[in-house]
Amino acid sequence: MSVTTIDLLRHGETEGEGVYRGQLDYSLTRMGLEQMRAHLKNDLPWQQIITSPLNRCASFAEELSRDTGLSLTYVPGFIEMGFGEWEGKTAEEIQKTDQQRFFAFYEDPIRNTPPQAESLMVFQQRCITAWQDMLQQYQQRHILLVTHAGVIRLLLAHILSMPLEAVFHLDVPYACLSRIEVYLDGKNEFARLLFHAGHL
């Protein structure tokens, strides 16, 4: 049986605070970069870095790769959910122009996709496919995955067998660090969450 360890790291504070960033390519603020750097200690456990290609994740991953010599891989499957017409807008703006759809999305996100957005089920399948591909490619390694709140929620829901409707009950603050261990025995997989919103 092989054991693979994955540390999920959400990006830090980002420009465009308060808007639905989704797949728009906002950058980290100076504070956001420092929030992520706070996890760096002398004895880093990682053997591989994987990142969403969006700048708010990739900029930190690239810096870490340069400083440590760790291999870096960009995986588009770990990009944030696409919010369609809501991207770049605040919740208050959306409520003023599309109140019915806004509240319907949070009441039942599976059946109420924002206009022109990626559905939650499509987003879920994209993330799980990228997760499974990563586990096959990097077995028995300790991976740092730098990604987004939505991706982390869906991956945690997947390994904890939570219903998809419950993902917004998971709090994933800026620079949140979570650790998952995955045990693989042939085609059988068992995963457990070791900590969430923790520190090394």
Automatic annotation (TrEMBL):
Entry protein name: Alpha-ribazole-5'-phosphate phosphatase
Higher taxonomy: Bacteria, Pseudomonadati, Pseudomonadota, Gammaproteobacteria, Thiotrichales
Record-linked Pfam families: His_Phos_1
Source organism, top-level taxon: Bacteria
SUPFAM superfamilies hit by this protein: Phosphoglycerate mutase-like
